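The instructor's notes for this session suggest beginning with a concrete chain rather than abstract definitions. Hand out the sequence below and ask the class to guess, before any prediction is shown, which regions might be ordered.
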Amino acid sequence: MSKLHLILAFHNHQPVGNFDHVLEDCYEKSYLPFIETLTGQPDVKTVLHYSGHLLSWIKDRHPEAIAMIRSLVDDGRVEMLSGGFYEPILSVLPEKDRAPQITALSEFIRKHLNYDPKGMWLAERVWEPNMPRCMAQAGISYLPVDDYHFKLTGLGDGDLLGYYKTEDQGSAVSVFPGSEKLRYFIPFRSIDELFSYFRSIHIRGGDPLLTMADDGEKFGVWPKTYKHCYEDGWLNNFFSELRRNSDWIETTTFSEYHAKFPPAGRVYLPTASYREMGEWTLPSEASLEYEYVSKELEKIVGEKSRQLLRGGIWRSFMVKYPEANHIHKRMMTISKKVHSALKADGRKGLKALDELRKGQCNDAYWHGVFGGLYLPHLRSALYRHLIKAESLACDLRNKYPVSERSDFDCDGYADITACTRDLTVVATERSGSLSEISLKKKLVNVLDILARRPEAYHSKLATASGPAEDATKTIHDQLVLKEEGLSDYLIYDDSRRTSLLDRFMSYGAKIQDVAKSGYEELGDFIDSRYSLKSAVKAGDVMLTFNREGRVLGRPFIINKTVTISAGNSLRVRYSLEGSFSGSFAPEMNISLLGSPYATIEDLGETLPVNSMASHEGVSGFSIRDGHLKLKLSFAFSGPIDLWHYPVETISLSEQGIERLYQGTSFLFVHRIEMDGKKQMEFTIRFMEDAN
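After discussion, reveal the predicted structure:
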């Protein structure tokens, strides 16, 4: 008698840098009760994947869970999947780093769970046609992706009741189509509705396969799912219903099905991720257009519209968010340094390699419902590990200072990366600005700030609901406001928030105007190309920017130099030439850990770092971060007006739409009357602060 074969694959992951209390909450609400529920259903087989970062945390903090998982594995009830250890998007890693990320997790699973995985989880199901090579190198034979990938080749639902073979240059793997319908059904639809769908597939005859491959966190962590899955018993009832219908439906694993049945055919999948990801990668206006056209097309051709219309690809996030591109391209250059260090000193090189791999964790490189780019603590974690990896690799060479010129971020503007023993500073021709100041001892990039940009869901704030809704829905079907009045914070920036941006304003401009991007820029220096040169002298690195632009239509020249000293300090000197009456305001965008950890001091009062204020006649001020034990001290050659305001974004997460502090913008306002030349300078010192 033929049976419907069902693979239930559950993917569990927490990003590098996530708060420990978040992991504990996820463990209590999802990871532990899921394993306990599964243990109580001895006839049900499943497939489990834990990213290496999460699995290591569970091993250290909750070894009892490792013992429970191992028991399920030993009983043949659970298949473990490998994958990139720190859950990277494999296709955008340097080729040298792809297979080793997978083999690292496979070795961990063999050691601690006594299982030799032949399948893997592909982070965010981001597939590119050359992927089979690194998978085959890592000993992988099969993996699930979404059925959407297959439908883009012209295959329909009836063709996707098995698995297919694919290859690149002779390296072959098997790919299983994960059902989007089941992703939306489980656990959000009734069990009766779910089994009605199962029966509709079973009556086709043969030995059809359905694969559900999705996040384990939706069983307890997603909004209202703990009550639904465990208190109301949905998950246990689902497993029980599978047991009661075992005469015609059989839970299986990738390894069992792969060994028992041949592939349905050969396929070549295009570059894709799951359908929703393609929409998230689009610019905001294009995303809204996509949503509208998709709904209209669905009225005409039904669900088939989903394979006729597609969005962008994952790599487009690096266009949409230049801050993500900066981190990614820095990771690429640091990878080269780390692999060079491995050849020089294997022991220290391995430490650098592990830090590099942590810095490749995918979450903070992108944004959708799930991606963590908007979360400062996740971006900070990437920088922390990448800075550490670069420091370890460069210390082996013991050659400081170093100044390297390239277009490392591939944006068409030259960059200079200057490294001393204490600092890494990245300068760019674009806006004649600094895009990174990384402190090696503190492992922090103090310029890690995200610009305020329009997102498609911003247009839906008026129709979003408050937090009181009771229905259990998939995240994709709900839009919840985490606080009232968020529409008041929908302010968008005119450029990326790098530092040393040269702004020209009228005397009448106010800090509120600048904060709301509502002032008139009188110069043409923002987003324009400066010439950029560097020189190394007596242990210092000097960066020189120059541009002949215009202010109020008249010629104006800016020359500025940034001297990176052998110690923890920068000196910035400006030389202006031209005619102008108004306010010249170099802008620094600083990102630390925010209130209550950081404060602005030495102004006669202590202010939270996320405050808005203006101060006249300032000759110096400090920013103190108690968590980092760091003090940034600014000193000016003459009194200025200091303006500062918080940069806050409105972003979407699993829990709803929220306001997030990204950093603080500081403007050093010089009120000038000039017809000729003028000079000014300031210094920044980065100091250990024990207070």
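Then share the key points. Residues 27 and 33 are 8 Å apart (CA to CA). The longest strand covers residues 656-688.
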